[in-house]
From TrEMBL:
Similarity annotation: Belongs to the UPF0102 family.
PANTHER family: UPF0102 PROTEIN YRAN
Residue stretches spanning the membrane: none
Organism: Pistricoccus aurantiacus
Name of the protein in its database record: UPF0102 protein FGL86_14645
Domain of life according to the entry: Bacteria
């Protein structure tokens, strides 16, 4: 008999755990967590953090291995546009006007053995 594949709830739980761990890792690097999983028009912002005076919108991408490519490769132009739109909505909703940037944290591996790859200013708002 073929083993059952993990269901969507398992994947969501694992994703939430990876996002939490990545946020804690970024806090160790000096960022301050402001909010997580911010629903906004057109998308979701995984983490909103502060790096000094800069508001940082962080996209977390996880893959167990690179067999199907590196997780950084999944933040394509379409995903970038969605993130920019969501960030603009967040800024308007919170009535914020401050320097911002978009970072991507790629997480590779299986829990608890994870490797983090942080790309600051991974793309610009256009």
């Amino acid at each position: 008999m073929k083993p059952l594949s993990p269901g969507p709830q398992d994947a969501r739980r694992r994703g939430a755990t990876v996002e939490t761990l990545a946020g804690e890792w970024l806090e160790q690097k000096g960022l301050t967590l402001i909010a997580r999983n911010q629903q906004a028009k057109g998308g979701e912002i995984d983490l909103v953090m502060r790096d000094g005076e800069t508001l940082v919108f962080v996209e977390i991408r996880h893959r167990a291995d690179t067999r199907h490519g590196h997780p950084l490769e999944t933040v394509n132009v379409t995903k970038q546009r969605r993130l920019v739109k969501a960030a603009r909505f967040y800024l308007a909703r919170e009535r914020l006007s401050c320097p911002c940037r978009f970072d991507v944290v790629a997480v590779l591996g299986r829990l608890p053995n994870l490797d983090y790859f942080w790309v600051k200013a991974a793309f610009d708002a256009y």
